Structure formats: structure tokens, C-alpha cells
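Preliminary data (for renewal application), flavin mononucleotide complex.
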Amino acid sequence: MKVLGIGGSPRVNGNTDVILAAIISGAEEAGAETDLVHLRDYCITPCIGCEQCRKDLTCSRFLDGMHLLYPMVDEADALVLGSPTYNYNVTAEMKAFIDRLYPYYIFSDDRPRKYSSRLSDKSRIATVFAVCEQTDPSEKGFALEAMSRPLAALGYEVRDKFPVKGYFDRGSVRGDESVMKKAYEMGYRMGSGR
Ligand SMILES: Cc1cc2nc3c(=O)[nH]c(=O)nc-3n(C[C@H](O)[C@H](O)[C@H](O)COP(=O)(O)O)c2cc1C
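Predicted structure:
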């Protein structure tokens, strides 16, 4: 079982980093091979819709950090995406990453195009989580859906969608035992293939 964790926070040692590390340590403890990357450490240019990837099956327009991540995505059986909530949505880093998964789609030639995914080649599972400051449900936003829906469209079975509310200060979620326990357990379950 290979588990790849991808963090979308620009803030080092922030709440997203803390939760992602707990998920990955659970997966590792369950015996999985793990990798953890922070998108802030990679230069990822936003997709420009040139459609060159239809022909080339990879992004040949931008030779950037995404080309270090594509092989990791290919190989992983399980993906964990985590993002802070920025203006009700995921961060720009996470959005750029998700859009650059576009080469994995296979489209038909009619309009609107029907789609399938080259990532449906094997059973793949995913977990997504989003951290936000506000606790009022009306402030929750759509960061979880912004990650889970594209992953489902790409062929992942999204097992967990974990909202973490009420955290603003850098890394303060570390003091919340129930969030940390849940994160670890989600990782453990993923790592053991359950
Ligand atoms: C630009 C920006 C936009 C934000 N927008 C929201 C928001 O819409 N809703 C919310 O509850 N929190 C919002 N926050 C707060 C962050 O989601 C919160 O501080 C989170 O813990 C940051 O995660 P991190 O520590 O991993 O960076 C925003 C923070 C920033 C910097």
C-alpha cells in the first residue's frame, strides 16, 4: 500500500501540516509506504487549458514541479489531500495542483465531452480534509467538495471527508486530542487498505 499525502497550505507548521503529518504517521504505523509533500515547495503553474495534454498524455506546456508529482500520483494507491480554507475554498496551491491533474482525463470527441480517467487503472482511495477558522456551519465553504469531487471524477473512492473547524493560530490544532486521534486513525485505516 502506497499512501501519498499532499498538503496545500502556504504556512509552514500550520494546522494543515499538523493534521497531514498525523494521517501519514497513522498510515506508516499500519505498514504502508508513505510520502508527504507540501505544494508550497513545488512551482506549479496553473493550467491554461491549451489541451496539449490530450495528445501528449502529460503536461508538455509547463516543465515544472508537477512533473515531480505525476509519478508519485501514478504510483500511490491512496491519496490524502489537505488544505486550509481560503475564502470558502481551497488554497491557490491546491487548486493549481488539482487542475494540473487534467492530463489524466480521457475525453470523447462529442460535446459536451464524456470523460473517464487513466487513474481508474487500479483501485485507488482518497481522504480529504480542510481546516478553517470559523465554526458557524454557514461559514464552512466548499473546500472539501473542491477536493473530493475532482478526485471522484478521476476514479478515486473518497473514503473520508474531514472538516476541521475552529482553528486559526499556527499549529494550534495540535492541542485538540480528538482531531489528532481521528486523523491518525484515518491514516491507519488507509495504510492498512481498509
Ligand atoms: C487568505 C485567507 C483566507 C481565509 N479564509 C477563510 C475562510 O473563508 N473561512 C475560514 O473559516 N477561515 C479562513 N481562513 C483561516 C484559515 O483557514 C485558518 O487559519 C487555517 O487554520 C489555516 O491553515 P494553516 O494553519 O494550515 O495554514 C483564511 C485565512 C487566510 C490567510
